[in-house]
Amino acid sequence: MDFKRDVNDLNSNGLEESREIHNIYGEGDIREELCNDNEKIREKPLDEKPMENDRAFHKEVIEKRPKKWGRMALIMIFILGLTLGTVLEYVADNFIGYLRGQNIIYAAEGQKYNYIIDKTVSPVVPIAKKVSPSIVAIKIKKAYRDWFGSRYESESTGSGIIIDAEGHIVTNNHVVENSNDIIVVLNSGKELSAKVVGRDAATDLAVIKVDEKNLPYAELGDSSKLEVGELAVAIGSPMGTDYAGSVTAGIISGLNRKVPVGDRPMTLIQTDAAINPGNSGGALVNSEGKVVGINTVKFVENRVEGMGFAIPINESKPIIQQLIKNKKVYRPYLGIQGQTIDKETAKQYNVPRGVLVVAVIKGSGAEKAGMERGDIITKIDGKTINTVEELIEIVRGHKLGDVLKVEVYGSLNRYRTVNVKLMESNE
How far apart are CA 202 and CA 417, in angstroms? Predict the structure, then answer.
């Protein structure tokens, strides 16, 4: 029986823009009209005092009135100038301080001002100083043979984080996988030979070790407290050891992102801090200078920019501890190989959604519980299961020896519940 997978449509969210336009019209027209009657003034003899006095009176009024308004205008301009100057000085001082985010010190020198602006210190600077000594570059040599049996060597680079004073370094599994020779370059430039302690392909984590004591090591934080929008700083060696210790800054862009890495889905932290080739295994650090993630992948597409991902440190800690202690990771599993039955496939074949059991591993808890090929897992411990990813996430949240109540839809078109004991998987 063949089943098809669904590919969910990518819904794009439209953004609506709104703008308010304010039109302000100001009209002011102040006019002063002097009205004189148009009657002709008859000439009279000079000895007629009343007419002479009358002319003198009108002459005085006409000549003096503009002088009065002129003085008032000068006074108004003077007052306006003082006010405007004071306002502009205040606005300029405060505006400069606002833009710079810096202190402004005034040194009086007559009527002049000397502006002494302090240098702004970025919050990334102390973070980089604190964490950078614990970040290393890793040089890898890998040997392989071609189809004709000829042996070749390739070189690659990555990054790592010193996690204790004993020389343990965490990095990505894909950085050191199939390596023949590992060289660690410390922040000081010193080169040390390293060996693999343990690797875990499922989480893309690995631990290597150098024979050097009292090394500076990073402080591991709590990734469960991360919030979208907070500061994120990535430190590593992009494009090789020539750029070792590179620091890029951005924000936490998203949490709990489901990202396919290889053939497995991983739950990762998304950031826009630049993560480039060679940064894999480096640190993603919060504003306190604590490692909250291990840089692992970046989307590389022409239409995508600023999408890097890191493994949450809370998920990494138990894996790291097991690798140091046991050299491998012991994790529980049901003991089946499954395939997702999507909505369309379920409708087409008139079966419930869930995970189709395509194979039962011999000797596993699933086999001992009576599960069969063709069963469809619909619930685990009462929680609905629609995809293989959901099933894996639930199982990984349990310990070896835990017993799960698994509801399955069997070949006889009937539901039944089986108790499956989780056994060890060393995939």
Answer: 29
Give the pLDDT means over successive 10-residue stretches in the chain (427 positions). 39 38 37 38 41 45 49 68 61 47 43 54 90 95 76 86 96 91 93 95 93 94 95 90 89 90 79 85 95 82 73 94 92 91 93 95 94 95 92 87 94 90 78
Active-site residue set: 174, 204, 280
Neighbours of 226 (CB within 10 A): 21
- Give start-end residues of each CATH 2.40.10.120 domain in the chain: 121-322
User: Please, where in the chain does CATH 2.30.42.10 lie?
Assistant: 331-425
Q: What is the DSSP string of 18-86?
A: ---------------------PPPPP--TT-HHHHHHHHHHHHHHHHHHHHHHHHHHHHHHHHHHHHHH
Distances (CA, A) of 131 to 224, 227, 235, 283: 20, 21, 8, 9
Task: Identify the helix (H) or strand (E) that includes residue 97.
Answer: helix 49-100
Phi, psi (degrees; rounded to nearest 5) at 30: -105, 120
Q: Per CATH, is 121-322 categorized as 2.40.10.120? A: yes
List the CATH code of the domain at 331-425: 2.30.42.10
pTM (predicted TM-score): 0.63
